[in-house]
Amino acid sequence: MSVTVPSPQGRAFGYADEVSALRQTLADPDRSGCLIIGPAGSGRTTVMNRALEQLERDVAIFRLRGSDLLRDRALGILEILLSQEGVTRDIGPGAALSVVARVVDRSPGVPIVQLDNANLVDVESISVLCQLADAHRIRLVVGAESIRPPVDLIATLWLGGSMVRIDLDGLDEGAIAALLESPGAIDRSTTEVLRDTGGNPRLVNQLVFGLDQTRAHERILWNIPTELRPILEIIAMVDAAPYEALAELCSAEEIDDLADKGLVTMDRGRGSGVRLSERVIAETLKAHVMPAHSLSLFKVYESVVEVAALTGRALFGYLRWGLSLGFGQAEDTVFTAVGAANTEGRYSDAADLITAPRWQTSRILLELVRADKERGNLEEGRRTFDRLVARLADGSSDGASTRGEDVTGSDADDASYLSRLACMDIRLTDPRTPEDLVVQWARERLTSPADTGRLDVTRARFEQRGGRFDEGMRLAEAVYRDHACLTRHRLRACAIIGIGQVTRGQVDLGLRYIDQAELMFGLAGLTSYEVEDAAPQIFVARYLAGDWAGARRSVRQARTGDRMIDFAGALVDARTGHPARAQSTLHTLLSHFQETDLIDITRVGHAAKRYVDAQLGRLSNPDALLDSTSAETRPDQYSWWSEFEARLFDLQALAVTRPDPAAARLHALGVEAAEIGATTMAAGALMEAARLGHETAAHALAEVADTIDGGIGDLARATAEGIGGSDPSALLDAARLALEFGSVVACAELAKRAQKRAVEDGDRTAAREARILIGNSTRTVRFSTPGPKLHAVLTEFERKLVDGVMAGRSSHDLGELHHLSARTIEWHLTRIYRRLQVANRRELRDVVAAWGDDP
């Protein structure tokens, strides 16, 4: 007897109502479409396909899908429709609107445009589709992960009432489990699998591999004695359990046996605990713990654990488990747990634990503000912070209260709380508007060095980010010199002094402070915030000083995460003449954005990418840089260095095609930096302007260079002397110094000026040396991609000619070998010389030999 398996539509996805709502929207003539929001894998595409499959056959459907390749390609997603009309995508959005309107008008009735992955579509294409939908020329069905730009254009139609918005939370896990266990699940054909899953990739994966994976995990646990399975389940529920507590439930030998089998690992040192080795095993165990069994396990664990002795993840896991079962906890315990989670950088976990029991005491809400801010939920954090400030204004008190009740203690009398609140005020405020700070009066009420040090060093960082370097240095010096302040506050102060000294031109002294700050990272008592606050400053200080190897090393040693490591490497590559490598890294980095980035990676990264694109001849619209305006950034993440560096990159990109306006703007940028004391940064902009021929910039550079030491100071002085003088040898000295410093592009520019002067003076030796420097620098910039470089630059025939030259063959010998005349061989060699920036065979042999030695 055959068994009919019902279609899982609506059951496996839990989206029957959503599919119905989408169909009704498309049938409503007053609606222009539907906006479906849901994370990747939540069934967004499946819901759209299900609804569209049930429409009438004669309805025209245009299916479009965004991707990383189309994100920055203007009108890229409409390119096929435009090409059908014989139009390229180089036209403006207005003309594109007319062309696409003609295409859709030829369809019977009102066609439907399905736009999936709308977050990866260019603004111009979405603007065209929105206008057509608003005019009811099309019905737009859009799937996106969030309402971030450019999807906010579509959200405008929803806010106006013409579109319907549907939010998807995720697949129905219970229904998926039922589908997996239904009769015939294993023997379904591919067609049946696609039919029953609606093509959802996550559900297909679950259906095809889910049972095997679950069985594999179960097989791992089969060899565990039945009496020890509850021990593993308890560990899975709390993430980490103290060894002493588990020893009360089973023997030490049994725990050791679990460790020998690779099921658990035992940490050592403070806050140590027993954890499950494999995350997937923990998830499997948790998934099979039913609520009643969970309650019994919790009571068993609670009877042997000493809550007061729990720390870190063990405390957090215990509280989270208890709160999920309805067991309340003391305010002090919750505060300790969320503070530890924030300290470890687990901000989402901290916020979830705070909101679960809805604690309303001020110090816990302040931890919630910190968690919201660090995970990018700035508006919610600001609202909670304003509530805390209002409590102080009202004189309310809740220092040691029970949940939501103000009973004892006063916030205004708690110095530690006031210090932390004032610090959060600083961290939420735009550094460009210090007048917006609202709780800085608290400084007068602080007496403990721990509290004053915390606030003063946070204010010092605030002043520095706003470009007020002298005030920032003054505050940081006071904290660093006061040994009564906590180590972690002195570490932050040391990093601030280091970058401040480097910025002001005292490069050698600043790097000594930076060395000291890096050594302090190894001291006890540090939290995740010191890494987030000090590590970027250490990188920037070494980056400004031209310590390229140190800059790369600093982010790795501080363990700031892969994004920061890649970003630091890309900036160093951009500055040291490896634009192709920097371009590849930046393309990957900028393909997605993270609110939790330690510095403004997006802003500086986009500017750096425009610069390396210009160097490689791939900048699509260089004239747009003439009218570029300062990009907005999140107020709490603003940094004067980030703004300066982004402007410097953009002006350097502009200089590739528009040197005259770029030189004037670079000079103005350098003068602006010098006026606020950032002489090292000013020197970088002035050197660029001087090399472009700006006479005033050369004089300004000479004045600034005398106040800077270190390698960057030597390069600035040499550049000023070389450009200001008339001897080509001075320019060659500056070019060699630039090459030694690592600035390959500067070396090429200085060598070109030296070559011009040498030709005018008839100095053949200087002209030849300049030509060699130019060739070496140009090759480094153009052919900086990793791998077999000659294969990327020369054709197969040209490589054979180069091999012959390396073997010492003459043009006549090469001609006989390849059945060509000696003149034809010389013509090909001339092309190779020009492409590799060399003048003759000897230079060609030197270049190929050096090139082959590159890693």
UniProtKB/TrEMBL annotation:
Ranges of residues in domain HTH luxR-type: 791-848
SMART domains per UniProt: HTH_LUXR (SM00421)
Annotated SUPFAM superfamilies: C-terminal effector domain of the bipartite response regulators, P-loop containing nucleoside triphosphate hydrolases
InterPro entries, per database record: P-loop_NTPase, Sig_transdc_resp-reg_C-effctor, Tscrpt_reg_LuxR_C, WH-like_DNA-bd_sf
Entry-linked Gene3D superfamilies: P-loop containing nucleotide triphosphate hydrolases (3.40.50.300), Winged helix-like DNA-binding domain superfamily/Winged helix DNA-binding domain (1.10.10.10)
Superkingdom, natural source: Bacteria
Name this protein carries in UniProt: HTH luxR-type domain-containing protein
Originating species: Brevibacterium ammoniilyticum
Lineage: Bacteria, Bacillati, Actinomycetota, Actinomycetes, Micrococcales
